[in-house]
Structure formats: C-alpha cells, structure tokens
Amino acid sequence: YTSENIFATPLLFSDWRTWKTCGVFDGQTLTNTLVSDPVQEGGTDYSFPQASNDASVVCLYRTRPSPNVPRRDIIMGADGIYTPLTTVDTDRGCDVSYDGSTVVYAEEDSDGVLQTYLYDRQSSTKTKISDAATKRAKWPRTSAGG
C-alpha cells in the first residue's frame, strides 16, 4: 500500500514524501520505496496517492507554495518522470488502473465545470470521458481491468 510519512532523521518538513511500504505482516521484511518526486521543491506536499498494482505508476495530489501556478494539481509519476496532468488548480482526485496503463482525474473545463479525464500512457493522450450533461465530477476511479 502507499502511505505518506516521514522516513528520515532528523525530521524535516522537506522529508514529507509518499512511499510504497511492503512487508508489514509477521515474518516479512519491511521495505519503503519512494514513489513521489525525489526532487521535491521546498514547501511542496504530496497527498492522496493512488498507484498501479506494483506502484510503478502513481498519481498524486500536489500542493505547492505561491507563486507557483497551478498551486494545486494532479501529477503522474512513471519511470522516474513526474508529469503534471492538470493545468488549472484542482484537488478532485485521481486513480491509476491496475496495470498502470491508464490514469483518470478530475479537472475543470473551460466553463469551470469539473469533468473526468482519462490519460492513456501508451498514446500520451488526454480524453474527456464525462458526458456533456455532467455538472460536477470528483474523485474518479478506474475499473479493475483499467
């Protein structure tokens, strides 16, 4: 599972990161693997992580200090590359398919209405998947098969 916690000594604000933690049951070896951006700018916080089955692809809600724009966005991490998916301030969540091929997230459209978008990693394309009648889309989820 993923968790947001401090994994360093001394404890500093810049050490708040998102980790994949494995081996939490009796007889297993506890391991922590960093899944958020290792080059974390000061004052930045990552939260509400979602990950593929093996955590090779993650989406995270990122809050950055002013004057960064956007201050609140959804980013995707895959293969050591961290890509912003949203272009306007948003905090409405994201999800990653089991195999990591697809990321869904919510973002306001040009009319200020929250819509659901699908990002296909193979084609690097963003597609709006909510219909024209959608009034507000929050916290989208993928199906088990993506």
How do the strands and helices of this protein lay out in sequence?
Blueprint: E1 2-6, E2 16-22, E3 31-34, E4 45-51, E5 57-63, E6 72-78, E7 81-84, E8 94-96, E9 102-108, E10 114-120, E11 125-128
Antiparallel strand pairs: 1-2, 2-3, 4-5, 5-6, 6-7, 8-9, 9-10, 10-11
Brief synopsis:
The chain is mostly beta strands and 146 residues long. Helix content is 0%, strand content 42%. The chain is built from no helices and 11 strands.
Structural class, from helix and strand content?
mainly beta
Query: What form results from the Cα inertia axes?
Result: globular
Arithmetic mean of pLDDT: 80
- The proportion of strand residues reads 35-45%
H/E element string?
A: EEEEEEEEEEE
Largest sheet: 4 strands, antiparallel
What's the Cα radius of gyration? 16 Å
Distance between the termini: 18 Å
The overall strand count is 11
Oligomer: single chain
Uncertain stretches: none
Describe this structure in words.
The chain is an all-beta fold. Helix content is 0%, strand content 42%. The chain has no helices and eleven strands. The chain has a four-stranded antiparallel β-sheet, with no helix packed on it. It is globular. The mean pLDDT is 80.
Descriptive labels:
4-stranded antiparallel sheet, 0% helix, 42% strand, mainly beta, 146 residues
